[in-house]
Design goal:
The chain is an alpha+beta fold. The protein has helices at about 30-55, 65-80, 85-95, 100-105, 120-130, 175-190, 195-215, 215-230, 260-265, 270-290, 325-335, 345-350, 360-380, 380-385, 395-405, 420-440; strands at about 140, 145-150, 150-160, 160-170, 235, 250-255, 295, 305, 310-315, 320, 385-390, 440-445. The protein contains 16 helices and 12 strands.
């Protein structure tokens, strides 16, 4: 049984934000935002000086305190800047094998509770896009946000007796994406250890998705389109969206009652209910991937609710990744058939996916073939049988150890693989991690990939 029903809005962590300090201004110009990055860089430089000074007296000291100090300073800066800078932190927090734990712990906060913007800034946004104050549009409007995340914050409202959630984008977020990503590159370079070419590919793909994610008119259209397409999935529910009450920077939707994953798990739900929610998640993602060829590519727990009826509520379609056929077929054919047993056809698929490159030597071909074959065999384990128990820690230990091993190999310091891997991998590993937190055992043959066996 679930605990006593607690009403929270879409994207709300359920934590009481009434006492949270508000942010009365947000740096919007390139000069203001770059100044913030420079200040943060100076702080990080100071942290390194402090670390190496201490290490002179204690040579065995590790980097845990340094990581903690840097993570705190970087997160504080990004949370004040909001927007794409904070969104990148949120993304990195989900890639648990990329960052030290101190960064993961700190950046995870961006999924739920960045400092909210003050009332006057909210009213200013409404006046800009509707020419009216929010209380002139809605019967009731709570000027205090119920949740503040990386791109926007959510407010409770009411109109004609219907309870609504109103998502408002932070000022200047859309206009600062390109410049922010240029400014964050040195931090990402230091934290991720990627080659410059690889980091450029990563940042370009992130920029493309973020530009879409800040277009709330596009998000409303996609939300309606995807919620309609997924309407027949078992135990998956969506809010209704209201285009007439939305704009390029404001989205109005139905309020969903429910709990986020952390709150849900705190109620000690039964294994049956865990499996039900896990199955809904699996079906939601695999239906989109294999039937729509486009997928909700932001699988962090803040985008989902578990309703009192035991359904999965999906509340954010801002980030959608479309999968072209030239990526979809070779990738999912490798994960879902015995194609990997055919070395010649596997190498052809790897070439199509740019995992093996035209100028690779025979020795390089053999090396990357063996490494990528092992990687895909690991990734594909949930697809091999008709169900998979995601509570098994051995599977995730293998995944993380393999990722850690690859990150230390000089051969993988250079970019390989088409850009579509960035969000498709993020989506599927994000799904795996949520299912692991749920400790769910799910049927994995409900929506099977469409495959080919020759290239």
């Amino acid at each position: 049984m679930m605990a006593e029903k607690k009403k929270v809005s879409p994207q709300t962590s359920g934590e009481d934000l009434e006492g949270a300090p508000e942010q009365n201004s947000i740096p919007t110009t390139k000069v203001q935002r770059s100044a913030k990055f420079i200040t943060t860089g100076v702080k990080i430089g100071g942290n390194y000086i402090k670390h190496y000074s201490k290490k002179l007296f204690n040579p065995t000291m590790d980097r845990s305190e340094l990581n903690e100090d840097n993570a705190t300073d970087i997160y504080q800066s990004l949370s004040e800047l909001k927007g794409s800078a904070l969104k990148v932190a949120q993304m990195l927090s989900m890639d648990k094998n990329l960052l030290p734990q101190a960064y993961v712990d700190k950046f995870t906060q961006s999924q739920y509770n960045a400092p909210p913007l003050s009332g006057p800034l909210i009213v200013q946004t409404f006046k800009k896009y509707f020419g009216k104050n929010p209380d002139q549009i809605f019967d009731k409007f709570n000027i205090r946000s119920t949740n503040a995340a990386s791109i926007g914050q959510v407010h409770e409202a009411e109109l004609n007796g219907k309870k609504l959630a109103v998502k408002i984008q932070y000022p200047g977020v859309a206009d600062s994406i390109s410049s922010d990503l240029k400014l964050i590159k040195p931090f990402a370079f230091r934290m991720l250890g990627m080659s410059e070419k690889e980091l450029d590919i990563y940042m370009r793909e992130v920029e493309e998705r973020l530009l879409e994610e800040t277009d709330y008119e596009l998000e409303v259209r996609r939300s309606i389109e995807f919620s309609t397409a997924c309407a027949d999935l078992n135990h998956v529910v969506f809010p209704k969206y209201y285009p007439e009450l939305s704009s390029k920077r404001i989205i109005t939707m139905d309020w969903l009652d429910g709990k986020h994953l952390r709150e849900f798990l705190a109620t000690n739900p039964s294994q049956e209910l865990r499996n039900q929610i896990g199955q809904a998640l699996w079906d939601f993602y695999n239906f989109q991937q294999h039937e729509l060829r486009a997928v909700h590519a932001d699988p962090h727990p803040g985008n989902f609710m578990i309703t009192p009826e035991g359904n999965l509520g999906v509340i954010d379609f801002g980030c959608i990744k479309e999968m072209p056929e030239e990526f979809y077929y070779p990738f999912f054919s490798l994960t879902s058939t015995n194609l990997l047993d055919n070395k010649e056809e596997t190498i052809k698929a790897f070439r199509q996916l740019e995992m093996i490159l035209p100028n690779d030597s025979p020795a390089q071909i053999e090396f990357f073939y063996s490494q990528y074959k092992e990687m895909i065999e690991l990734f594909a384990m949930p697809y091999i049988n008709n169900h998979f128990d995601f509570s098994k820690t051995t599977f995730f230990d293998q995944l993380y150890k393999f990722g850690e091993r690859l990150s230390k190999m000089p051969e993988f310091k250079h970019a390989r693989g088409v850009k579509h891997f960035i969000y498709v991998n993020r989506t599927n590993f994000g799904l795996y991690n949520i299912l692991h937190e749920l400790k769910a055992d799910v049927k994995t043959d409900t929506f099977k990939p469409h495959v080919v066996l020759e290239y």
